[in-house]
Structure to design on (573 residues):
């Protein structure tokens, strides 16, 4: 493609409404254009990247034995009513009505539709397992569409759904999908991690997520180099402290703390560390009462862990401050476990504290030098907090690190959640009807493009992992109007490279060299070749590798060979 035929509009300025770098760069480099909130047009260069990602996914899904289909994006409400999700899926579901007043929705996912297909197509255990997949548009009416294509409303997803007679067969396909995903993200050239995840909305049991590592990621991942433990922070168990609780040494004291509320303020006021302060959070119980949760001041409550406690309301709800004041006699910032009469659970680390400070259950008053057993009963301890960097790994192989990630893939074992309610059965070996067991496997195809940029960019622009580069080579012709020999040399190179199978973007625009170089850096194509007047005289071209910035000269007639070697060495890693 020649840039004189591809109207590329790039910007130097950072677009005002783009919060993160991938969104900014995709707009600046002309990869996408915003139509409306969470709706984007993929422009020529961006679409090439998206198609490359799709192609790698398709190849690996096919290799893993999955069958590509294409389901409608508009889905009838009846199917969603069969599973009950028409009423519980909520506002993410964009509902529409046709001229006959029939209800439909835009697909946010396709469990219902694929189960409808399976219950019609599959009759016998002999046909199982089957794994259907599609690469298709999804729509989710996200509360806060943001980060460009990473949290859009309309986006491209690869979704696969497998059907089985039994758990063993589901386990087999689930593992094959996990392997296929590992191959996909490896082939895309991305740094990623597979982590244990909870099922979230979709339900079911076993579930893992694939995250592209990037500082701006919305998710936090805890992982350990030594034992390859990796889990979403929400799910990673925090082990009890290794050392026993120190003996009580301080004498208890009552300290007026006027206006001092937050743990940071209390610690600063008392001139101690936050880890010497005990924080007491009040949540709603499941039978209308209140429940106290105690954590070390520097730790963060994990709601998923807390709502598993017997007697705690699910989902976890913090008690309203007015109610806390009315029933416990002190405001939220002055609460503590001493003399508290409601049920109390302490985090393991909170139970291991000695000589701690806490609220006195009286307005503007704290206690210091408090000790379990001596000043108040020994608490029941549980794992209630988020893990932190430096915590012991549950895998036993060292300490945890915390990294941020962008969720790009998710695999679930669904069990019979959908097949049961939709009566998707086959006949088994004994001629008996059996409900099929299901798995589902998603990849955020369009989100991958944003995540790749989050992970790979510099101050000048995008640095595509080579397999995602919109073209293989950016060929720049310097000052085309000035010299016919340069134009002729660039054109010859353009044709030779294409004949040799390279995808080439030729910058033959009548623009200043500085503009061309800046655009080339912004757009981020892996290999750059520059042909200029001086070089052509000497029979030379200038090469630059975008990822490393390495520059080299090569003879004009050797450019094809030179790039072949470059690609081969990149493929070897
Ligand atoms: P998230 O937690 O990010 O909202 P999810 O867990 O709801 O995602 P899944 O139902 O697991 O998403 O969908 C499969 C994949 O689709 C996700 O792993 C993600 O990569 C992608 N995806 C989900 N929502 C969006 C969105 N709004 N925009 C772009 N990609 C998305
Ligand atoms: Mg998910």
């Amino acid at each position: 493609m020649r840039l004189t035929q591809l109207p590329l509009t790039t910007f130097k300025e950072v677009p005002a409404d783009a919060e993160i770098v991938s969104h900014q760069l995709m707009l600046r480099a002309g990869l996408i254009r915003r139509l409306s909130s969470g709706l984007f047009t993929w422009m020529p260069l961006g679409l090439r990247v998206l198609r490359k990602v799709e192609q790698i996914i398709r190849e690996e899904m096919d290799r893993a034995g999955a069958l590509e289909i294409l389901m409608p994006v508009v889905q009838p409400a009846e199917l969603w009513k069969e599973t009950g999700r028409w009423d519980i899926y909520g506002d993410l579901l964009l509902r529409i009505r046709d001229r006959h007043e029939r209800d439909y929705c835009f697909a946010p996912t396709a469990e219902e539709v694929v189960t409808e297909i399976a219950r019609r197509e599959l009759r016998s255990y002999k046909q199982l397992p089957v794994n259907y997949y599609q690469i298709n548009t999804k729509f989710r009416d996200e509360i806060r569409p943001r980060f460009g294509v990473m949290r859009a409303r309309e986006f491209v997803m690869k979704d696969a759904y497998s059907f089985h007679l039994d758990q063993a067969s589901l386990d087999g396909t689930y593992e094959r999908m996990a392997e296929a995903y590992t191959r996909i993200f490896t082939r895309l050239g991305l740094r990623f991690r597979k982590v244990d995840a909870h099922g979230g909305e979709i339900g079911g049991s076993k579930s893992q997520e694939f995250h592209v590592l990037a500082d701006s990621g919305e998710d936090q991942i805890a992982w350990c180099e030594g034992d390859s433990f990796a889990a979403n922070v929400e799910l990673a168990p925090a082990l009890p402290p290794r050392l026993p609780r120190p003996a009580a040494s301080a004498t208890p004291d009552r300290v007026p703390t006027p206006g001092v509320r937050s743990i940071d303020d209390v610690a600063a006021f008392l001139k101690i560390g936050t880890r010497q302060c005990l924080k007491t959070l009040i949540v709603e119980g499941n039978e209308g009462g209140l429940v106290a949760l105690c954590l070390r001041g520097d730790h963060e409550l994990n709601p998923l862990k807390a709502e598993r406690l017997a007697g705690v309301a699910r989902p976890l709800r913090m008690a309203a401050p007015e109610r806390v004041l009315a029933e416990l006699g002190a405001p939220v910032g002055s609460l503590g476990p001493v003399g508290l009469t409601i049920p109390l659970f302490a985090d393991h680390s909170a139970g291991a504290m000695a000589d701690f400070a806490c609220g006195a259950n009286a307005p503007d008053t704290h206690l210091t030098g408090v000790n379990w057993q001596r000043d108040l009963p020994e608490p029941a301890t549980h794992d209630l907090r988020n893990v932190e960097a430096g915590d012991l790994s549950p895998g036993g192989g060292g300490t945890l690190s915390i990294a941020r990630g962008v969720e790009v893939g998710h695999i679930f074992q669904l069990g019979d959640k959908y097949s049961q309610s939709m009566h998707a059965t086959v006949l088994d070996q004994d001629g008996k009807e059996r409900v099929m067991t299901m798995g589902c496997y998603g990849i955020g195809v369009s989100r991958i493009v944003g995540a790749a940029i989050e992970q790979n960019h510099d101050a000048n622009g995008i640095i595509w992992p080579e397999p995602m580069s919109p073209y293989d080579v950016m060929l720049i012709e310097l000052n085309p109007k000035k010299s016919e020999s340069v134009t002729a040399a660039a054109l010859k190179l353009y044709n030779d490279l294409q004949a040799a199978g390279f995808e080439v973007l030729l910058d033959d625009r009548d623009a200043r060299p500085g503009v061309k170089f800046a655009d080339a850096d912004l757009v981020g194509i892996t290999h750059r070749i520059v042909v200029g007047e001086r070089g052509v005289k000497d029979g030379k071209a200038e090469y630059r590798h975008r990822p490393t910035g390495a520059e080299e000269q090569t003879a004009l007639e050797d450019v094809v060979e030179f790039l072949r070697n470059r690609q081969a060495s990149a493929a070897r890693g």
